[in-house]
């Protein structure tokens, strides 16, 4: 027995032991099991960093973009699949009131439909972030605010800017004039017939848009990036107001999300611009908004309709009934 033990020790020290076929199969099976368990552990670890449950389900994202074609652009319409649990909606500046009263009216008109879209998207696992800039203070003691503030810190690949201005290296000329102030008004692009002096307005989010469940509240670019990374959200939908200003320029807006490498889209039927038809190019307010959307489709990201976010592709959400 001592001689055999010594021989085994020599084999272990000086070279591999020759295994039988059965021993090799057992060893391979054990190794495969170890790898599988390791994968499950990593998956469980990734899941544990989230506060929103990751659930199966894909969205059919029908987007519209514009591609450079010689001196102009041609329209491209495509359908891509996004995992709902990898998708987030950011609602920009849908305030309860606004110094420009026609702008406030359009927000009030849009808010119930926006709430319906985000409610259905939420049911499929999409993360909802409410970003009423300068109004976040109203939500400081809520779990929605704490959820984003407490997100695990993440280092962005590029600096998060305080405001992302028009980028002449990346985009063409601006299609509308939206920097004109009239009378005592401080808000540019307002199409109210009579300009009003600027007075503080209610920066709560519009009451028709509900904040509930796993939703988050923040207007801070770094906080929102932390939350997106923690929750594994690479796909970002921007909706809200105003398309030509805050939706593009905020530190959580389209330009910044593009710089961060996110798959960002604009929800074109749930947004509005600040544009006055008394300014160039002297078109209707509706057409002015369309021109801004077309500019974004040309230079920044595709646009979608809200209905894309309201239902999952059949058979992608888990077991089907037999």
CATH topology term of the largest domain: Rossmann fold
Give the overall silhouette.
globular
- What is the mean predicted local confidence, pLDDT? 89
What structural class is derived from the secondary structure elements? Answer: alpha/beta
Brief sketch in words of this structure:
This protein has 322 residues and is of the alpha/beta class.
Protein described:
The strands form two sheets. The chain has a six-stranded parallel sheet with strand order 5-4-3-6-7-8. A two-stranded antiparallel ribbon has the order 1-2. The protein is globular and about 65 Å long. It contains eight helices and eight strands. The relative contact order is 0.19. It is 33% helix and 17% strand. By secondary structure, the chain is of the alpha/beta class. Helix 3 (101-123) links the parallel strand 3 and strand 4 (127-131). The chain folds into two domains: 2-48, no CATH class; 58-309, 3-Layer(aba) Sandwich (Rossmann fold), CATH 3.40.50. The protein has helices at residues 2-14, 21-48, 101-123, 143-149, 221-230, 246-249, 254-259, 285-299, and strands at residues 58-69, 72-83, 87-92, 127-131, 216-217, 235-241, 263-272, 303-304.
């Amino acid at each position: 027995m001592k001689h055999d033990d010594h021989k085994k020790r020599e084999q272990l020290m000086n070279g591999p032991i020759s295994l039988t076929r059965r021993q090799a199969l057992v060893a391979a099976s054990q190794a495969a099991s170890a790898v599988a368990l390791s994968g499950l552990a990593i998956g469980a670890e990734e899941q544990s960093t989230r506060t929103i449950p990751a659930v199966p389900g894909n969205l059919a994202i029908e987007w519209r973009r514009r591609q450079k074609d010689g001196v102009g652009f041609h329209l491209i319409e495509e359908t891509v699949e996004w995992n709902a649990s990898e998708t987030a909606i950011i609602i920009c500046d849908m305030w309860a009131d606004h110094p420009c009263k026609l702008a406030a009216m359009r927000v009030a008109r849009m808010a119930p439909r926006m709430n319906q879209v985000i409610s259905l998207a939420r049911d499929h696992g999409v993360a909802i972030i409410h970003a009423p800039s300068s109004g976040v203070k109203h939500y400081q003691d809520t779990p929605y605010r704490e959820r984003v503030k407490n997100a695990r810190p993440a280092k962005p690949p590029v600096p998060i800017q305080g405001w992302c201005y028009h980028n002449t290296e990346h985009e063409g000329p601006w299609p509308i004039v939206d920097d004109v102030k009239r009378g005592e008004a401080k808000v540019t692009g307002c199409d109210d017939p009579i300009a009003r002096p600027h007075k503080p307005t209610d920066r709560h989010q519009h009451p028709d848009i509900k904040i509930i469940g796993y939703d988050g509240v923040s207007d801070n670019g770094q906080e929102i990036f932390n939350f997106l990374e923690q929750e594994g959200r690479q796909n970002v939908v921007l909706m809200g107001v105003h398309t030509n200003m805050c939706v593009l320029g905020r530190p959580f807006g389209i330009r910044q999300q593009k710089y961060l490498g996110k798959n960002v889209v604009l929800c074109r039927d749930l947004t509005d611009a600040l544009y006055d038809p008394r300014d160039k190019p002297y078109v209707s307010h509706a057409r002015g908004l369309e021109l801004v959307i077309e500019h974004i489709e040309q230079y920044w990201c595709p646009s979608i309709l809200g209905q894309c976010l309201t239902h999952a592709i059949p058979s992608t959400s888990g077991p089907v009934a037999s």
